[in-house]
């Protein structure tokens, strides 16, 4: 499969790609010469919101790094239900099926906003990691983390109540892509209630009910494709299944305080290891 179709691809100058890569933690340790070498054979791609980088089941012909924007990774189950596996943020490697010796992509990757990525042919993977061992190590760490997150996802679905799962999912997204706003910390990309439902194994109705309840209590504000966290400590307590404080919307300690010291931080979003 070609890296995004011609209508979704744009020629980006090498200096621009160089500058964008230099700003990513993954590539920052590389020298200019190493960075130039890493760029060889890479195709810059621009994805409009809603465009696909690749589709589940397609031949795993490329691997990628996201330079700008945000992508959604989703899997279709044998029963035809869609599960949102994770979100890809700038600096993340994705499409690593070649690193797992998988011939096809196990998930679909779609832009949730205008995004820019670099695509390398899958055949270049071995040379890529041989020339840049630190990038190979980072890819291995990424895949290990995704497997661990998948185990956490299974555990949450088996043992946690829906309110816990939704609270933890929002907290993870805020920590990964939070942006300060006038009324709190917003998730820095468009996200729908259906997306949250597909992340947490529940229904659109349940997510809507929870967000409406939390909005009344001053914990979040939510609109069309927008979620803003107003009281992080309150949502932390819900994620840990502790009872919320009385009159949560007016409690200063709830708005500005920290969760109890013995509260474990929420786990990260589950990820498909080679998606």
Automatic annotation (TrEMBL):
<dbReference type="InterPro" id="IPR012318">
    <property type="entry name" value="HTH_CRP"/>
</dbReference>
<dbReference type="InterPro" id="IPR000595">
    <property type="entry name" value="cNMP-bd_dom"/>
</dbReference>
<keyword id="KW-0805">Transcription regulation</keyword>
<dbReference type="InterPro" id="IPR018490">
    <property type="entry name" value="cNMP-bd_dom_sf"/>
</dbReference>
<dbReference type="GO" id="GO:0003700">
    <property type="term" value="F:DNA-binding transcription factor activity"/>
</dbReference>
<keyword id="KW-0804">Transcription</keyword>
<dbReference type="GO" id="GO:0005829">
    <property type="term" value="C:cytosol"/>
</dbReference>
<dbReference type="InterPro" id="IPR050397">
    <property type="entry name" value="Env_Response_Regulators"/>
</dbReference>
<feature type="domain" description="HTH crp-type">
    <location>
        <begin position="160"/>
        <end position="233"/>
    </location>
</feature>
<feature type="domain" description="Cyclic nucleotide-binding">
    <location>
        <begin position="26"/>
        <end position="129"/>
    </location>
</feature>
<dbReference type="Pfam" id="PF00027">
    <property type="entry name" value="cNMP_binding"/>
</dbReference>
<protein>
    <recommendedName>
        <fullName>Global nitrogen regulator</fullName>
    </recommendedName>
</protein>
<keyword id="KW-0238">DNA-binding</keyword>
<dbReference type="Pfam" id="PF13545">
    <property type="entry name" value="HTH_Crp_2"/>
</dbReference>
<dbReference type="InterPro" id="IPR014710">
    <property type="entry name" value="RmlC-like_jellyroll"/>
</dbReference>
<dbReference type="InterPro" id="IPR036390">
    <property type="entry name" value="WH_DNA-bd_sf"/>
</dbReference>
<dbReference type="InterPro" id="IPR036388">
    <property type="entry name" value="WH-like_DNA-bd_sf"/>
</dbReference>
<dbReference type="GO" id="GO:0003677">
    <property type="term" value="F:DNA binding"/>
</dbReference>
């Amino acid at each position: 499969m070609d890296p995004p179709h011609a209508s979704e691809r744009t020629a980006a100058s090498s200096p621009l790609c160089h500058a964008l890569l230099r700003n990513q933690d993954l590539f920052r340790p590389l020298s200019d010469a190493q960075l130039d070498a890493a760029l060889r054979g890479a195709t810059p791609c621009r994805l409009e919101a809603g465009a696909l980088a690749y589709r589940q089941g397609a031949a795993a012909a490329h691997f990628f790094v996201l330079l700008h924007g945000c992508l959604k990774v989703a899997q279709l189950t044998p029963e035809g239900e869609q599960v949102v596996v994770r979100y890809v943020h700038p600096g993340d490697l994705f499409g690593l099926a070649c690193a797992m010796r998988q011939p096809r992509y196990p998930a679909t990757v779609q832009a949730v906003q205008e995004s820019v990525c670099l695509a390398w042919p899958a055949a270049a993977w071995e040379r890529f990691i041989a020339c840049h061992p630190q990038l190979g190590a980072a890819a291995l760490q990424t895949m290990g983390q995704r497997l661990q997150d998948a185990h956490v996802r299974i555990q949450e679905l088996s043992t946690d109540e829906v309110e816990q799962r939704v609270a933890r999912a929002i907290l993870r997204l805020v920590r990964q892509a939070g942006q300060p706003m006038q009324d709190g910390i917003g998730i820095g990309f468009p996200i729908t209630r259906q997306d949250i439902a597909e992340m947490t194994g529940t229904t659109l109705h349940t997510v809507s009910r929870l967000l409406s309840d939390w909005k009344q209590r001053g914990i979040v504000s939510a609109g069309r494709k927008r979620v803003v966290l107003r009281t992080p400590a309150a949502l932390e307590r819900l994620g840990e299944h502790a009872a919320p404080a009385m009159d949560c919307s007016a409690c200063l300690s709830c708005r500005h305080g920290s969760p109890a010291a013995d509260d474990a931080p929420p786990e990260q979003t589950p990820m498909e290891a080679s998606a």
